Amino acid sequence: MFRINRWFAVLFFAATSVVLSMLLSRVESIAAAQETKVPVSKPSQVAAKSPKSGTDHETAGALPAPLAARDVSQRIDALIDADLKQGKLMPAPQTTDEDFLRRVTFDLAGTTPEPNVVSLFGLDPDPAKRTKTIDRLLESADYARNWAQYWREVLYSRATDPRSRISQKQFETWMEENLAANRGWDKVATQLLTATGSVQENGATALMFAHQGDPEEIASEASRIFLGIQIQCANCHDHPTDKWKREQFHQLAAFFPRVALRRDPNGGVASFNVVSLDAGPGGGRFAEPGAIAREPEKFIERVDRNKDHKITLDEVQNDQFKRVFTLLMERADANKDGALTAAELKAMPIPEQQGRGSLEHYMPNLEDPNDRGQKIDPVFFVSNTKAGAGMKDTARRELAAKLFTSTSNEWFAKAFVNRIWSEMLGEGFYMPIDDIGPERTPNSPEVLTLLSRQFAAHDYDIKWLFRTIANTHAYQRSIRAKSAAETAPTFAAAVPTRLRSDQLYDALTTVLGIGDIGGNRAPQRGAGAGQRVDNSPRGQFNAIFGFDPSTPQDEITGTVPQALFFMNSPLLQTLIRGAGQTRLARILQDFPNDEDALTELYLLVLSRQPSEKELKICRKFLSAAPNRREGYEDLMWSLLNSSEFLTKR
Amino acid sequence: MSLFHHQAISLSRGGLTRRSFLHAVSAGAIAAGTLSFRDVISLRADDLRKQGMSMILLYMQGGPSQFETFDPKPGLDTGGPTKAIPTAIPGIEIAEGWSQVAKQMTDIALIRSMNNKEGNHQRALYQMHTGYVPSGSVKHPSLGSAIAKEIGDPAHDLPAVVSVGRTVGAGFLGVDYEPFAVQNPGQIPQNVTPLIDTSRFNRRLGVLNELEQDFAARGGETVVANHQRLYEKTRKLVQSPQVKTFDLSSEPQALQQKYGETQFGKGCLLARRLVEAGVTFVEVTLGNWDTHDDNFNRCKTLSEQCDPGFAALVADLKDRGRLDKTLVVWVGEFGRTPRINPRTGRDHYPRVFNAAIAGGGIKGGQVIGASTKDGMAVERDPVSVADLFTTVCKSLHVDPRTENMSPIGRPLKIVDGGEPVAKLFG
Asked: Taking CA atoms, what residue in B is nearest to A222?
């Protein structure tokens, strides 16, 4: 039975190569249609059932005319205000200038404003000063850096192989360039989905590298990050809460089976290349030991020059298989005669990852783990667009990117809008932010639809989206205590959120007036073996304070080593001394009056003036302190250790 | 806070999640006997906590060679030059270099039929710590964190999970079960000791608490409440007399030498002190087992560190009457190839490998399963990772099918599948 299958496969391959070129030309025409933004026609013969979702699939192709950011901000506020009125909820008042400036500086530029900037902003009588500040921050270098750091954590926090963080600097640089140039989100996503090349040279390889070229992991993460849909729940069974079928997950994975990771033989330990398995003329299907083990006779026939049914080093000396041959010798040469037979190849221990290195994707047979499973051709689950069999890696991934980023795919825009809105306002339309889909009910659905359709109409202009959100009254509201009635987000008030590690690090260096925090040894997190730790001061800080930005806010409650760092770190103790060259020493010197000094200290650490009550508490504390310096050191310690310092308010 | 989040999930999914179901369960349901066995088990958790069970994982990072540890094959090509030595149990032989462990064999059971598929370090390490293969969508909690959640004492001064060396974290179980990493066993961990005197430290905490009130009142109440809980937990650690548990200097010199004056030996001694002090789960890592080259010399060096630490730990726990309540497990991510490669190394081999297990009610002095004569495969009684994990759960009186709700609303069992190895229990 097994033999018959094997021969069938061989014949099948032979037949396919003829048909392949025909299929490819068909696919290219689909691709060409996509180029001109004509919606992909849905082949009616596609096996999967057509989705019966109540969403605007049918009309999604026709995008609205792009509106100015200001107009969309106003429409959003009108929609939210109407919702609040209907729910009899009073919105919180607009923030103070201090709170606004700190919030928007963290959101757009990833750091805290300097005290003098806070004071000047407060004194500025210009009624358009908030909008102007938003524009200024979006044009700052800090904007691109901040959001590149954000996306670094989104991508690497769930890396299948934590070692892939060795390329995070390259990713960050690449992402920073894209953000600074304000390339559309579709362009960014396309590059991430289609990248090949050296992970040390091309930062766009990050997603493929992070998941080791594994088609199922890439499919899961691409769907989660770009569409917000957790389709991998359908990996082993139909999706438990959504309509997705198991086959649809594997059809998505079938866009990526030819992505592979290769160590660069001439490079150092960290040199990896993301390559297409079908690259190179002929024989590409044997680029992997796994493929050889499945079809040993075929492989021997291909290489066996002297027709003795064995292959030796001589026979592959000038062949592309030379490298793979040495690998095979170690693994398969059972009798150690320096030659490989079909029997030896067949008996060779299974490669480390079964099914890897195959040119097509196979849906595992859950009943029989030894079975190779069912071959699956790529179909994009959202639109049911079929890609056809046997496509080359680049064509397959380019098609995937087109389907992901197509304006007729509503989830691409919705996932991004939901993520950025949620990051800025503290609550999303859907929560958790990366678990959305046609069978979930979002909060304020009209706002989400308006914003995501406009985002698509603006060619996924990222800065346009930030500008639009930041200018809404919804974004600029104060925080306030939640009433018991508010069980779902209403956007009636801002929600305080935990600062990301990079934001906190930048806030801390700003407050302390230093470039870098040196010398804190970090407890290392993550799965261990071989993980290269970023030993820069920022990297060490991130090892203590980092978290996956896709984590729901209410699960981020801090850790003991974080608290220990702020409480007792010798480094921090030195930097908050009230003597020497520290910023506190400067304040104490410049402001002999306590009210001035305390105001300055609050402006420095929390970017706001102290309340009357806080002034009273501080004064009382100072009067009981052994001396002025020590009293202020303790107060600065308290402000840095406060939850407010860790929080965007 | 977290209740709010889970309600939001269940609303947006148009259905009830298991967790919200459990929240909604009334006393009436319990009285009426409508709860499943599993729910009753979770209600028994408080009783379990009182039993004071704990676990020490000796993690051999890199994948130790079974031939050079507990399944030697002297005289065979695959066995290499490694000799076998007798142990306290007649008929059980282990590799040379493990003479101290050999003496403790009465209390140790060897599993020679561990069997798995993952031959990649990261994936196998993750699986050996969580019971699950890695997936981008969910960070599974480590077994240690899951166990601490079931039987740890939440009010304890010390963290419930401590790791000497890096490890896999608590995943979605959160801060209370996050492993507390110790870099240098024997020393008080980084930033634990305040640099100022207690009265000033308390003054700072006092004024911090006062100053937080304004922010709490203007909308930061949840943030402040979480922060205060964390600071109270951290303060308790900082000011606890138990911090001295991390300091080994009070241990008799002779005992310290028995454990070995190595990072691993100190880690083992620290582990004993920690479980005695009430910590639920301690992991001690010994790295460098990835012997692709120079396998035999490297294994010798490693056994010189591991043998005294492992043996002294079992003996010491027994002397102090803690062995019955402390499960000790020795394992790595996989085994190594029977074939010796041209660099005198052995490569990754998940098909057959070893684990050693002692204490916690485990019947020692026996071997579970066997490898084939040439060591290529499991001969009998294969034990999977899930089998090993359910065995651990059984020893610690934890129901392996207890479900924890993942952030995307999918319940995950502590261990999915597997059966406990029956022969290990009396």
From this structure: B136
Q: How many CB pairs under 8 A join A and B?
A: 247
Q: B-contacting residues of A 161-200, CB under 8 Å?
A: 161-163
pLDDT in tens, B385-395: 999 999 999 99
ipTM of the complex: 0.79
Chain B residues with CB-CB distance to A623 below 8 A: none
Question: Residue B375 contacts by C-beta under 8 Å, 6 or more apart in sequence?
Answer: B66, B67, B71, B73, B76, B78, B79, B338, B352
Instruction: Tell me how far apart the alpha carbons of residues B423 and A149 are, in angstroms, rounded to a whole number.
Output: 52
Please state whether beta strands B108-114 and B366-368 pair in parallel, antiparallel, or not at all (unpaired). Answer: parallel
CATH ID of B55-187+247-424, from 3.90.226.10, 3.40.720.10, 3.30.70.260, 1.25.40.10? 3.40.720.10
A89-130 per-position pLDDT tens digit: 899 999 999 999 999 999 999 999 999 999 999 999 999 999
Contact check, Cβ <8 Å, B175/A558: yes
Contact with chain B for residue A530, Cβ under 8 A = yes
pTM: 0.77
By C-alpha distance, the chain A residue nearest B290 is A529
Q: Is A125 on the interface with B (CB under 8 A)?
A: no
- What's the gap in Å between the CA of B139 and the closest CA on chain A? 8
Show residues of chain B in contact with A639, CB under 8 Å. Answer: 211
DSSP labels for A281-345?
SS-GGGSSHHHHHHSHHHHHHHH-TT-SSEEEHHHHTTSTTHHHHHHHHHHH-TT-SSEEEHHHH
Q: Tens digit of pLDDT for each residue in A350-400?
A: 444 444 557 889 988 777 656 778 999 999 999 999 988 789 999 999 999
CB B411 within 8 A of CB B404: yes
- Helices and strands, number each (H, E), in chain A: 28, 11
Work out whether strand B378-380 and strand B370-371 pair parallel, antiparallel, or are unpaired.
antiparallel
Identify the CATH number of the domain defined by range A282-357. Answer: 1.10.238
Interatomic CA distance for residues A108 and A141, integer angstroms: 10
Q: How far is CA B197 from CA A562, B404, B415, in A?
A: 21, 42, 46
For the purposes of burial, counting CB atoms within 10 Å of the CB of A571, is it exposed (0-12), middle (13-18) or buried (19 or more)? middle
What letter would DSSP give residue B268?
H
Name chain A contacts of B220, Cβ cutoff 8 Å: 479, 496, 643-644, 647, 649
Tell me the helices (H) and strands (E) count for chain B, helix number first: 14, 16
Residues with Cβ within 8 Å of residue B91, at least 6 apart in sequence: none
Interface contact A561-B2, CB threshold 8 A: no
A551 shares contact with chain B (CB less than 8 Å): yes
Name, in order, each residue with C-beta under 8 angstroms of A160's C-beta and a sequence gap of 6 or more. A210, A211, A212, A214, A217, B122, B123, B134, B135, B136
pLDDT score at A291: 67
Residues of B in contact with A638 (CB under 8 A): 204, 207-208, 211
- Name the DSSP class of A127: T
For chain B, what are the domain ranges? Answer: 55-187+247-424, 193-246
Domain map (residue ranges) of chain A: 69-142+407-484, 144-262+372-405, 282-357, 501-648
At residue B412, what is the residue type? L
List Cβ neighbours of B303 (8 Å cut-off, separation of 6 or more).
Answer: B68, B69, B95, B97, B98
